[in-house]
UniProtKB/TrEMBL annotation:
Organism of origin: Luteolibacter soli
Domain of life: Bacteria
Record protein name field: HEAT repeat domain-containing protein
């Protein structure tokens, strides 16, 4: 009898441990995404809610806890949205009240964004008002989750609300989306409309128009259309800003297309001084890997580049390909470029705290020393006079011999 009772006690203990372990495991899963505190209000809200709402909330909670502390997978996001897209405003508010810890966990943050997007589809003003309150006000993405569906559904209403009630930041957010929408719906009149109806949308219109031009493979037709839109505006500042944005759209793109755009800009008659800036910047990009062509173009009358800009380009060249640059300077009687580059690089080292024992000075000494030798060969008096102004240790660097391979 005693043995039987002992076995029964052991079985009960084992079952108790197993049950506790199962509880602990489930508890860890629930805690991973956070569990809302149970209050009288939450119990009453759940008891009074329609069955369809409680079922949807339970399904979302199950998906949320599967994700835990991780980002939901695309499939999980799709499953969540299939539930949320059927929510009413009351359903959205009820589930927001069920999510603990606000936006502190990835799964919760993703659901909150979806819930506000759905809320904005039905009641954008209410969603905006709630989204700008704690704990959501600290989120940078929350206003956009409201504004995007709002502008898509009722752009004029969004602008009216922003003018009457919006803060500067809210006007900017709404303006970004309004500008994007205007440019897509009515590109020819978008800038004029933005300026007249909602000035905060002007920058977004400019960006969208230049992006659309780029998306159309930078075609001549798309650029001419953009130039035509600009020519019809009476605001020179807006025209300049749009051309500026167009320049940047070619920064990492097809440089040959950019040169074609320069020519078309000239033909449009829009702001010759900006066209000239565009031409110079494009040419710099095109000739980035062709330093000699770039150098010769910068020295041409067409370039209008200053002497400082020419020396700067030469300095970049001599640091990457010293033999080519030095030979070019001698051939084109530009020893003054050599001299200025030697001075710039030497003074830069002095300002950086150069000392004779610096192990990192080898490459600098090699490149600068070779330039100095070329300068001294063509202008010995000027080079020696400048050398005499340097600290003794640095004079020794320039007076030391170089071997055939250009090292000490």
């Amino acid at each position: 009898m005693l043995r039987w009772k002992l076995k029964l006690a052991i079985v009960a203990a084992v079952m108790g441990v197993a049950t506790w372990a199962g509880y602990r495991s489930e508890r860890r899963t629930m805690d991973a995404a956070g569990k809302p505190a149970t209050t009288i209000r939450s119990v009453v809200r759940r008891v009074m809610a329609p069955k369809s709402r409680t079922e949807s909330i339970d399904k979302l909670n199950a998906l949320r806890h599967v994700a835990g502390r991780s980002e939901p997978t695309p499939r999980e996001m799709q499953q969540c949205w299939e539930i949320i897209r059927g929510f009413t405003v009351e359903d959205v508010q009820a589930y927001l009240a069920e999510i603990p810890d606000g936006l502190n966990r990835p799964a919760n943050s993703a659901l909150v964004s979806m819930l506000f997007y759905r809320w904005a589809q039905m009641d954008p003003e209410g969603a905006m008002s709630a989204g700008m309150q704690p704990p959501y006000a600290t989120s940078r993405t929350m206003p956009y989750m409201v504004v995007v569906p709002w502008v898509e559904r009722d752009m004029e209403g969004a602008m009216r609300w922003a003018k009457a009630n919006g803060s500067d930041s809210e006007k900017m957010i709404i303006g970004n989306e309004v500008g994007r929408m205007l440019a897509k719906q009515d590109p020819e009149n978008a800038l004029a409309r933005a300026k007249a109806e909602f000035p905060e949308a002007v920058n977004a219109v400019l960006l969208e128009l230049t992006e659309l031009t780029e998306q159309m493979s930078g075609s001549k037709e798309s650029r001419q259309k953009l130039f035509g839109i600009l020519a019809g505006l009476d605001d020179p500042q807006i025209k300049r800003r749009c051309l500026y944005e167009l320049r940047w759209s070619y920064d990492e793109g097809d440089q040959e297309q950019a040169l074609a755009a320069v020519k078309e800009m000239e033909e449009s008659g829009l702001f010759p001084e900006q066209v000239e800036i565009f031409r110079r910047e494009v040419s710099y990009q095109v000739m980035r890997e062709k330093p000699q062509e770039r150098m010769e173009w910068m020295m041409s009358a067409e370039s209008k580049a200053s002497t400082d800009a020419q020396v700067g380009a030469y300095t970049n060249w001599v640091q990457s390909k010293p033999e080519e640059a030095i030979a070019w300077a001698a051939e084109h009687d530009k020893i003054d470029f050599l001299a200025e580059t030697v001075k710039k690089m030497t003074y830069s080292q002095i300002r950086a705290g150069w000392v004779p024992t610096d192990d990192s000075r080898g490459r600098w000494e090699n490149t600068t020393h070779r330039q100095f030798n070329a300068w001294r060969e063509h202008q010995p008096e000027a080079a020696e006079a400048w050398l005499g102004t340097l600290p003794t240790e640095m004079q020794e660097v320039f007076n030391a011999p170089l071997s055939n391979n250009g090292t000490k």
